[in-house]
Specification:
Homotetramer. The protein has 2 helices and 6 strands; from the N terminus they run E-E-E-E-H-E-E-H. By secondary structure, the protein is mainly beta. Strand 3 and strand 4 form a beta hairpin.
Length: 144
Amino acid sequence: MINRVILIGRLTKDPDLRYTPNGIPVSTFNLAVNRTYTNQQGEREADFVNCVAWNRQAETVAKYLKKGSLAGVDGRLQTRNYEAQDGRRVYVMEVIAESLQFLEPKGARTKNSEKDEPIPGGGYGDPFGDSDDPIDVSDNDLPF
């Protein structure tokens, strides 16, 4: 059987770091992942995926990621259920992060906050927007 999930998206709020009664760190966060197509109004929709990180990775997530951070998550899908206070059964599906990648430098979104508009084809901002100088790239630097 295969249970593998790979996501790239932005955190919708700051991660929530807690500790189990045994002192094990657990961090929960929600990742907004853009869909590859637009709706009938031409707007790009997103899916909001609950993610969970454990142990040292949980502490790292809480320390370095915040709302709006771009992150890559490699993990597995897991379901769990519990009984709510009103007596009904609640089912939860979440991604258990086995590997997490920070995909932008710390503070990158605060420096260019006015340029954080989505651009066609995905991504955010223009990395060369602050410079009017020509970009010097040799043929040897191109991957094709």
